Amino acid sequence: MRISALEEYGLRCLLSLAQVGSDRQLSIAEMAEKEGISVPYASKLLSTLRQTGLVHAVRGRGGGFCLARQPKEINLLEVITALGGPLIDDDHCNKYSGRLESCVHTDNCSVHHTLMGLSNLIGEFLGNVTLEDVLEGRALASLSGVTGASSPAGGCTTPAGTKTENKNTFEIE
């Protein structure tokens, strides 16, 4: 699974808004400084998040952006799909059909079923993890509900995220 820079920084912006609480807003400039991104990029992220209904813009002096709902009511699936679209595109098979107009395996495609199963597992996990869970370090606890596995002894360990050199994506290994 690849997480784009837009999804990564969008999630970080939402977590920053969750940390300041519902009684305070962050301006675009404050968000840019807090997250180490440019003001135009912060503006783009917050505009997208506003259009998808995850944040509200407050106008006027002292205005800025705040979460549209409580952190416990916003799950990561909403965030990822709002910023990057569905985990697996409905038109996936037509995009990878080779030289033909449609995939030759349309009627009985084990790859499609496998990818949809993976998408469902990832979607279930992301749907069960809220911004509050991430802030409180409980994100991996939701994984046991999806896979049936228990947390490792001694507590959870966070998977390492590595940034690839040539692309603006992050891979979670």
Q: From the structure provided, what is the oligomeric state, counting identical versus distinct chains?
A: single chain
CATH homologous superfamily annotation: Winged helix-like DNA-binding domain superfamily/Winged helix DNA-binding domain
Helix proportion: 40-55%
CATH fold naming:
Arc Repressor Mutant, subunit A
Top CATH class: Mainly Alpha
Explain the overall architecture.
With 173 residues, the chain is mostly helical. It has one domain: Arc Repressor Mutant, subunit A. It has eight helices and five strands; from the N terminus they run βαααββαααααββ. It has helices at residues 5-20, 28-35, 39-51, 76-84, 92-95, 110-128, 131-135, 143-147; strands at residues 2-4, 55-58, 64-67, 161-163, 169-172. The strands form two sheets. It has a three-stranded antiparallel β-sheet with strand order 1-5-4. α1 (5-20) crosses α3 (39-51). The longest helix is centred in the last third of the chain and has 19 residues, at 110-128. It is elongated. The protein starts with a strand and ends with a strand. Residues 149-173 have low confidence and may be disordered.
